[in-house]
Design brief:
The chain is an alpha/beta fold and 395 residues long.
Length: 395
Amino acid sequence: MGVILNQIPMMLVALLLLLVWGATRLWERYALTRIEYHRHLSAKRAFFGEELLLELEVTNRKLLPLPWVEIDDEMPEDITFLKGKTTSSHKTARVHLTSLLSLGWYHRVKRRYPICCDHRGHLTFGPARIRSGDLFGFSRQEIEVNDVNRLIVYPKIVPLEQPSIPSKQPLGDILTKRYIFQDPILTMGVRDYHFGDSLKRIHWKTTARLGKLQTKVYEPTTSVDMGIFLDVRTVKPPTWGMIQQRLELGVMAAASIANHAMAAGYRVGLYANQRRQPIGEPVRIPPSQHTEQMVNILDALAQIHSAAESMPISRFISLESRNLPWGSTLVLITAMPTETLLATLLRMKRFGRRVALVIIGGPETPSLDGLPTYRISDDVPWREVETLTLKVAMQ
């Protein structure tokens, strides 16, 4: 019409609208092509209270500039951002970290967020949604980046104030002053042969050198196997629910006892009556002193998320204790010492098992028929606990 009527202003308006339409189509088609988005964590594992750095990086690898880019990245609710703000999500225990920026041609932008790991768990960062469009807001594109980053936050480990938990296995690696058995693997020295000594104990090389019979002297040892059983139930059965304070104290106690025992030379195992993802079986880590054993225990404890038990702890102990060496020490951590559970522990004690009971919270508990019983008070919030005191129960 502008050409027909020879109206230059109308022709300019038409040309402007044509350019806007062309630019809109161009951004609509190519805005999010060759866009790269990466998320980096400064570590894949962290302890409770540790600070890490989260880095978000977006790159535009084309000539077309992007006037605006909006990135919504899913984050775990249990992480505290020391910089930046998050918004709530419709998903449970998730929040959104939103970034709004512009990208020139072949431009890269990095943003760093310090975070505090103030809750244990297996945490997932991502996926992310990226939106962009033209300068005028007529068109919008959106893509989803399904790459995720995983972070394991270990439970809090604190020093223990407790009496020692003795053990009963005759052969092992921990030296003791009182002993009946000697470990034939650990040779302490030699002495002159006495009438009645076994010929298997004669040290033939020293005998040949000295010209008289010499007998090996072995080092005395006691048990080094400990199975830590964690009961995830924190309310009275058959009620369903969870007391977060007691569950966290129980997890903290299991981690601290395991760390203390392994430092003392024990072979430590962990058992918990909750299904472990993704295998769907209860937590079952046999005693070991491998260098990775403490990492495996902490990984399992970090995954305990609720008080949904797979089976009653009394039945779980009866089943799993069969696979432990006979002289092993069984340490049970529970907030709900039911009559059935106490009967199971007393039966094991009568059969010769070494058992120790650690009760989380609740009133003062008397010692039961000589069963070593300890109590952890739940008066102090678990985040503020710096030393775990295992108070000996009244006799």
